[in-house]
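ARCHIVE CARD
Drawer: 12
Card no.: 0347
Subject: one protein chain, sequence and derived structure
Cross-reference: see card 0346
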Amino acid sequence: MMEINIGIDAKNRELIGAGLGRVLADTYTLYLKTHNFHWNVTGPMFQTLHLMFEQQYNELALAVDLVAERIRALGLPAPGTYKQFVALSTIKEDDGVPKATDMIKRLVEGHETVARTARELFPVAENANDQPTCDLITQRLQVHEKTAWMLRSLLE
């Protein structure tokens, strides 16, 4: 196999890849949670939440691909099994079907968790002069913070 020479040494690529693996696991877990809530939401806000959750899980589905491809561009394997995601994710799965307002609260928590995970990685990527990862993380932070705000607004 040809050696990777993109201006980021192997040690930093490993550190960044590990951080991106955690972002990927959190994002995928949040995707699954959001899709589950889309299928199972009920109550007076059904139509609004059903459509909103669909938009959100579609965005997350695209995001996992971007994160995984960045890991691959760094020359590392991307985690891609439930077992790996459970081990890497800080977002826990839900048992049962929560009420609609609890779904909203749990998705706010999930988006804020992904934001914190991404924010932890940013200085690592920045110190390694890894602008593409910094750009990806910045974009993800914007999406997760905005989505958390929009969901939180439904609870007021």
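Annotation on reverse: The CA atoms of residues 16 and 58 lie 25 Å apart. The mean pLDDT is 97.
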